């Protein structure tokens, strides 16, 4: 027992040192696990992924497990900085290393690439070619807009013109779509898509958010797709800074963004006569937009609302009671904007709470000059809808004037 206490104490001191004080794989602070075969300190989350690679890594808790003196000596000798010099020796300059909050597939593939495939030790050039080439090409299974089936499409990410293209056939010369990487977002959505490597790719086109839903059975392919995209976007974001210091961490952009909140709610049209309909909503903190779609896997939204700040007359509160007009859910949210009052209904109280919290987060945040610019744009779009669309259809639109 004396040894247990003594050795754990040594490890707890060791983990405080610079280099060891951040997880070797995702940079999370205060790691309290370690791989005693690789000699690295990692966070609980990454330790789980190490456990899946028993031939290269064996992990223990530095607080709770018994540590032999010889293992502690190895940890003293190796440590995160030394391991980095070995396993991350040849990481390409613009390679995006996953962080704590990145998706599990990305972190898992990073850990496998580093320790299992030893892609960055300099022994093996095969993998480096992917990251140092100017393009990345692979088939992915993409959900059809109309027939809703996943079909094999050829995807091509190009670092030369910073685009994502996809082709219907392997030998097609003309792409079905050419998408700029400037605002391209790729977010792992395994549950929504129903595949462990499901990826939602979003971008904006003609003031609409467009979604592509893709997957590949091989996790390496899907992770490489995202890593290559991130790498291109890092370069793209760095170009104006190339003469300054491009590699400082502040300049690494937020490459994958998550919605602040997503889920089903019931909504009604702008007048009091329409009935409630169940819709999928997604709320974006960055552009302050609440989008609504018919279902989670729609290619484009049906409509959206801009969520301004408190000082501009936006507010949110809970309201209760079952609505009469066709709604089945009873946990209500009352959203007030200068133009319109919305009522949304949630199925559960917890959902209602989470939505209100998410709306409050945006409403309490002051608007930036870009937000003002986009409000102006929204007014024009609203006007456009009114004149050109609403006049010809009987659909109810989210906005009215
Ligand atoms: C690890 O992190 C991922 C993504 O951040 C999360 O989904 C998962 O639940 C975490 N697992 C553990 C054991 O903390
Ligand atoms: C949120 O909006 C920003 C700005 O338009 C965009 O770059 C980002 O990808 C969006 N996030 C999601 C999850 O769609
Ligand atoms: Zn970690």
TrEMBL record:
Provide the Gene Ontology terms for cellular component. cytoplasm; plasma membrane
Domain named Arf-GAP: residues: 8-128
Its BP terms in the Gene Ontology are:
heart development
Q: Give one Pfam family, short name only.
A: ArfGap
Cited SMART domains: ArfGap, PH
> What GO molecular-function term can you cite, just one?
zinc ion binding
Q: Does the keyword Transmembrane apply?
A: no
**Name used for this protein in its record:** Arf-GAP with dual PH domain-containing protein 2
Its lineage reads: Eukaryota, Metazoa, Chordata, Craniata, Vertebrata
